[in-house]
Amino acid sequence: MPWTRRHLITIEELSLAEIGQIHATASAFKKILQRSVKKVPALRGKTIVNLFLEPSTRTRLAFDMAAKRLSADVISFDAATSSTTKGETLRDTAQNIQALQADMIVIRHAASGSPLYLSRLLDIPVINAGDGAHEHPSQGLLDTFTMKEHLGDLRGKKVVILGDILFSRVARSNIHALTKLGAAVTLCGPSTLVPHWFTDFGVTVSHDLKSALDGAEVVMLLRIQHERQTSSHFPSLGEYTGMFGLNKTRASWLHPKAIIMHPGPINRGVEIDSDLADGERSVILEQVTNGIAVRMAVLYLCAGGQPENVTPTE
């Protein structure tokens, strides 16, 4: 079926077919990125504005590189250089960007719902690069793309998301994507960060690390989201590491061919030991690489492109 969606706001609203279209398009773009000439003219003449009003490294750079690989012009704003520091509203900032003839906005914002708000206000596509603790759709798409590269069909595969689930937009996007793809998802961590009501999402909640990791084919570590917490949800980082940090012994509980993932930034020695983060089972840097291809797919499709028109051959 043709791609008809102008915005990417959440994975929750995507159909299984649409997730498949994004993954298939990303696969074609990944082949292009492996050529000697990594650039295609798909978005030549388009201007994409990265409006990042929260700190970011991987996501911002990946969107920037993805747009440039598609031959788009890219303009980046951040909180320090935006007029929001002078009291300008998000609405006025976005409308001014549109008035400057931008063709698309990629936004990261601390307020949940801000990308949806802009999508209803503007006449150009809006891409959510993370809104508060709500969603981070491109991250969930690249994570599941990476899992499929290693495991193939995700139906019935045991995937554990371990850490701060309550405040994680990455967790929510992955939960929506993985359940649509048929994976068996287990959330694990302290009860204060993994409340039982997450079972309403169609996942298993566990506070016992050994049973959660037993036989899992994927474990995704999440850092503690201190910046979104209004109070401490466990006594100390040392206690968290002692109970839920992934080390060599605990990794032995996983499926022998399990992969280890992390969306970054990593707090080494807290949620994961360095030898595991850098080990042969880790696909953390693959996630970063795949993030370019997936974001190329998102930008291309939301700009009006169609999956069947991407030709990875020279």
Q: What does this molecule look like?
A:
- With 314 residues, the chain is α/β, with parallel strands linked by helices.
- The chain folds into two domains: 16-136 and 290-309, Aspartate/ornithine carbamoyltransferase (Rossmann fold, 3-Layer(aba) Sandwich); 137-287, Rossmann fold, CATH 3.40.50.1370.
- Helices cover 37% and strands 14% of the residues.
- It is built from eleven helices and nine strands.
- The protein has helices spanning 16-33, 58-69, 90-99, 114-121, 137-151, 169-180, 209-213, 237-244, 248-251, 274-277, 284-302, and strands spanning 47-52, 73-78, 104-109, 126-131, 158-162, 184-188, 204-206, 218-221, 259-261.
- Helix 5 crosses helix 6 (169-180).
- The model is unreliable at 226-231 (pLDDT under 50).
Helix content: 25-40%
Written as H for each helix and E for each strand, in order along the chain, the element string is HEHEHEHEHEHEEHEHHEHH
Number of strands: 9
Q: What is the CA-based Rg, rounded?
A: 19 Å
Mean pLDDT across all amino acids: 94
Number of helices: 11
The named CATH superfamily of the largest domain: Aspartate/ornithine carbamoyltransferase
Sheet having the most strands: 5 strands, parallel
CATH architecture of the largest domain: 3-Layer(aba) Sandwich
The domain count comes to: 2
- State the secondary-structure class: alpha/beta
CATH class of the largest domain: Alpha Beta
How would you briefly describe this protein structure?
This protein has 314 residues and is an alpha/beta fold.
Task: Please give a handful of descriptors for the protein shown.
alpha/beta; Rossmann fold; 2 domains; five-stranded parallel sheet; four-stranded parallel sheet; globular
